[in-house]
Amino acid sequence: MVKGITIDGIDATGSYGVNVHNISFFNGLTNVTVKNLMVNGLELWNLFRNTQNGRITNNNARWNSNGIYIVGSINNTLIGNMVIRTMVTASVSYPGLIMIAATTR
């Protein structure tokens, strides 16, 4: 469990805050919790890839290029997270939540 930590990035491309990632869904990570973080100035602050039954709870993210990114994952729970001011360029506004082939509850 990762809890109660501030992660302050360098506003650089390729900078990640929390990367919960496994190569294969079938051997995926289960029951991972990311809770009570302050995350600032990263390209991507939270990536869940090929995870099951995880929790992303009560986190505060500011000035990151993207917010919560969930790919190829099922039954993850998101509760009480704040994604404030994702980066905006002249032509692109980045989302606070991205889900690809994923479900939450």
Characterise this structure.
The protein contains no helices and 14 strands. Strands 1-5-9-12 form a 4-stranded parallel β-sheet, with no helix packed on it. The radius of gyration is 13 Å and the shape is globular. The relative contact order is 0.21. The model has no long low-confidence stretch (mean pLDDT 76). It is mainly β and 105 residues long. It has one domain. The two termini are 20 Å apart.
**Continuous helix count:** 0
Q: Give the overall pLDDT as a whole number.
A: 76
Report the biggest beta sheet as strand number plus sense, adding barrel if it closes: 4 strands, parallel
> Percent of residues in helical segments?
under 10%
> Element order, helices and strands?
EEEEEEEEEEEEEE
Q: Runs with pLDDT <50, length 5+?
A: none
Global structural class: mainly beta
Tally of structural domains: 1
Estimated share of beta-strand residues: over 45%
Rg over alpha carbons: 13 Å
**Shape designation:** globular
Strand segment count = 14
Please give the alpha-carbon distance between the first and last residues.
20 Å
Reading side by side through the largest sheet, how are the strands ordered? 1-5-9-12
